[in-house]
Each structure stands twice: as structure tokens, then as C-alpha cells.
Model the fold of this input.
Amino acid sequence: MSPAASPRRALGALALLAAIAVAGCSSSSKAATPTSAPATTVAGSPTSAGTTPVTSAGTTYAVGSRTVTWVDTSRPTKGDANRHIAAASSRTLPVLILYPAAGTAGAKPAATPDAPVAAGKFPIVIFSHGVTATGPAYAPFLAAWAAAGYVVAAPTYPMSSGVGAWADLTDYTNQPADVSFVLDNVIKLDTTSGDALAGHLATTAVAVAGHSLGAMTSLGFLNTCCGDPRVKAIVAISGILATFPNGGWTDPPSTPLLMIHGTADKTVPYKGGSATTFAKLTTVPRALLSLIGASHVDPVLAKDGPITDRTAIAFLDLELRNDPTAWHQLPAYLATQTGVHLAVAGGLPKP
Done:
């Protein structure tokens, strides 16, 4: 769901989400108890992101932004006459890119259009929006990720964005391929002569992330339908495992996964969503941050957004930079917050 979605839209979206979600997911809207699955600790270093040099964690940057539009001519858009969206033989994807910029970092990150890129090579995150939203709708939330040294590309999907998009939720099955297409084009920027990001992308340090329907999209990268070997980590906020054509969950890849979910989520219920996913994906290194009493959108808004940002950045540092410093600092930080619970399992290093 969009961060600004109305209760009526939320109810319509919930009905459709329930229809397309994996069988057995709860439809309860009551606050749930955080999962009590045992945590697992492994010794040694975190997962390596690859051989591309990555600028070290720990620096805070100014934030720059740019918008590009990429068209995938290999796949169609079905269209929706009721929403005045014409069917097309291609898929058009406007993409907001936030990146670490040169200059003085602000106390509250905000993006400056076309600001000069900071020195260094930065990991890549493709972030998927919720239904009715757009990529730019999450810019205030994602600015912290760019300020922490990540290049974040946030596409706007042709069918799941904008007013009335809950009627076209099933187009989420096409969105993992959209993500891979956007990733293709972001990576190309690293070797595009004259592009501002040329030489600044750590092209083997890649994660996908998303909120709500975008979390479903990102979780698709654990499904046999949609895997992409370039994806080294997944962040799923207020999400749920969903069915995909020609795919299954019998043997998901061991891509590290961070889930963040409010226990009072009435759109994608906690028990049927992230709590079930945490219990189901037993071979996946994973963590679940439960936000006690939080709603569907609280994790990406002012109420809990800073907690989500800090946890996600620590996880991305761990997996894409091979730097566990912020991850090990999480318990002390979370202890200062009210109503949070972090569970770790499947071989993910314990904070």
C-alpha cells in the first residue's frame, strides 16, 4: 500500500492480497505477538558481496537525485481501460535515483537534484513501492539510505502505481522482471561515458527492497520464478510471500533476508506475512524486526521510519559491504526504542 493510502483503499487491497497470497496466510487484523523462533548464530565473516571495491561504511553523505525513464521493449503492459492506461507492447518505468553526493551532509537528509556524485564506489539497491504509490513517494524515507552510501533506484510500476491501482495488484507478478531490467540499466551507467554515476557503482554489491506490494515483489527473488544471481540481499517491509506463475518455494536460494513488519498491520497481517515467512524459509539466512503495535505504513513514515532505516542500513552494510560494525551496534540502539523485537535465524550472524 501507498504510505498515503486511505482506509477504504486499504480494505480493497487487503481483499485482493488475501486472494493472491500463499495459502495458509492469516487474514487476522489484530495485533500479533512477535515470533519466538530461536535465533541462530554463526561464527566467521558475513556473506561476501563480490569482488567490486565498495566504499567503506560509516560515512554520512549529502544526497543527490535524478530521474530517468527506461522502456523494456521485451515485455508488454496489459493496460486498464477503467484507469485510462493503454495496453502497450512495452513496459515504461520512470526511475528515481538517489545517490551519495559531494558536499556537506545534512542532519535530516534531503535530495538535491543533479548534485555532484561523492567520491567512491557505492552498492546498489532497487526499491519497489507499494500499491497506489510511486517510487518518489518514498524519497523522504530512502534519503537516509543514500546518505549512508547507497545508490537507490526506485522505479514507478505501470500498473500498481496511482489512483485505482488496487484493481491491478496481480501485475506484481511482472515486477521482479521490472526490477531486473532496472538493475541492468543502473549497472550500465557505471560504464556509460559522461554519465555522472560512471565509475561510482559497486556493480556486484546489489540488494532489492520494497514496502507492501514492493516487498512481495522483492521476496519474489527467493522464488524459482524470479531469481537473479546478482541480488545479494533482500529487505522486505510489511510484506508477504505470494504466488508467482511458474514458480515455487520448495528450494529458495540462501539470499540473506531482512523483514520488518508492524504487529498491528491490518493490510498485510503480521502473522500471515513476515512472521509466517520467517518460519517458512528455514534455509534462508534471515532476520525479522517486529515493531510492536505499528501499522502497515508506520515502518516507512516518521513514527518508525528511523528504526527501519537504521536496521536496514546495518543489514545492507553487513551483506553488501561485509562490514558488521553497524549490525553489532543494533542491539544497543534497539534497546533505546520502545516496542521492538529482533529475531535472527538461518545462519545470519547474530548482532
About this structure: Residues 109 and 143 are 6 Å apart (CA to CA). The chain has one domain: 7-345. The chain is about 20% helix and 20% strand.
